[in-house]
Amino acid sequence: MICQISLFTLKQDVTPERLEEMMATTRSTLLHIREVLHLNVGKRIKAEDTWHWFISLEAESLDKLAMIQDDPYYFKFTAEVLKPSVHRTQTSTFEMDPRKNVKYS
């Protein structure tokens, strides 16, 4: 099982209302993709934290994660949510099964 976590800082013109809209759009768009097993979306609590919001999604394997990223809904999400509003991104991918060799993820 694979978990990919993406952290985002937003452009200065993004309002709190726009962030709420982005979170809702992210949920409704990415959950249309069959390969997405689980999705979390959240915003920061403390104003001094570096990252404004995050997305965590789970897939069965790295191949399924690649399928997610090639899906038309993912392209729509990127065009409508990320490109207009995100300033910086950091993404990490993790294997969640204990004792599984990551070579076979």
Please render the helix and strand layout as text.
Blueprint (H helix, E strand, L loop, with lengths): L1 E9 L5 H15 L7 E6 L9 E7 L2 H8 L2 H14 E10 L10
Antiparallel strand pairs: 1-3, 1-4, 2-3
Helix pairs in contact: 1-3
Describe, in plain words, how this protein is organized in 3D.
The chain has a single domain, classed as Alpha-Beta Plaits (2-Layer Sandwich). Strands 2-3-1-4 form a four-stranded antiparallel beta sheet. With 105 residues, it is α+β, with helices and mostly antiparallel strands. The chain has helices at residues 16-30, 62-69, 72-85; strands spanning 2-10, 38-43, 53-59, 86-95. Helix 1 (16-30) packs antiparallel against helix 3 (72-85). It is globular, with a radius of gyration of 14 Å. The longest helix has 15 residues, at 16-30. It has three helices and four strands, in the order βαββααβ.
